Histidine biosynthesis bifunctional protein HisIE
Amino acid sequence: MTEVKIENADREAGKEFMPKFDSNGLLTAVVTNAETNTVLMVAMMDQLAIARTRETGIAHFHSRSRGRLWMKGETSGNTLTVKRILVDCDQDALILECEPAGPTCHTGASDCFYRELVDEGLKPKSD
């Protein structure tokens, strides 16, 4: 039990990057536009996605639907250049501040949050 407290203290206050993955080896990554702070998308990252993102400066994720590593924009060309990575207090979520090269959403929208829930349905978000 003491080891968990030490680990949590190290993770929460230390300087070492110790990502805390869930039981599937994943953590949540929120992607924002580095210039406007708009939330562009939310995705999952595993250890390989984090490593590849840090190596290349281009956002990589773990695609649950594809079951593999996925570079954002690998087919569309709409990559995300990572400017900064923020780590939350217990290291189980990241914010990737990025410069998008085109629309972020696969639908062609600038971001994946283009609708809002109103009453019982969805409508285009109002700015």
